[in-house]
TrEMBL record:
Pfam family, one: 7tm_1
Keywords associated with the record: Cell membrane, G-protein coupled receptor, Membrane, Receptor, Transducer, Transmembrane, Transmembrane helix
Classification lineage: Eukaryota, Metazoa, Ecdysozoa, Nematoda, Chromadorea
GO process terms (BP): neuropeptide signaling pathway
Source species: Meloidogyne incognita (Southern root-knot nematode worm)
InterPro entries according to UniProt: GPCR_Rhodpsn (IPR000276), GPCR_Rhodpsn_7TM (IPR017452)
Sections of the chain in a coiled coil: none
Record protein name field: G-protein coupled receptors family 1 profile domain-containing protein
Length: 102
């Protein structure tokens, strides 16, 4: 069984974003299309409240997943910079040690 990869978390976030976008298309867009075709709500008050909740939920879900992707990319960049700075410190110590021994 292969070990965890660095890209697995990012792939999972992209998959979740695709699912949330699909939910927006199915819930929000189709509901608005039905509204534009009929110009009235025929589902009653309870269904109207459920539709409005699901519509807003899908929009907030998508926004939060985009924020999670941005934070994941930020931590990846910061960790790469820390790794690079650590390698530079090792290289600097190596150069100083070798230059002082001469």
């Amino acid at each position: 069984m292969p070990g965890p990869s660095l890209g697995n978390g990012f792939i999972l976030l992209k998959l979740n974003l695709n699912i949330s976008d699909l939910l927006i298309l199915l819930i929000h867009a189709l509901g608005k299309l039905g509204w534009l075709i009929t110009y009235e709500w025929k589902g009653g008050e309870c269904l109207c409240r459920i539709f409005n909740f699901l519509s807003m939920f899908t929009l907030y879900l998508s926004s939060n997943i985009v924020i999670c992707i941005a934070l994941d990319r930020l931590t990846t960049v910061l960790n790469a910079q820390k790794l690079n700075m650590g390698q530079q410190k090792i290289w600097t110590k190596y150069v100083i040690r070798n230059s002082s021994s001469n």
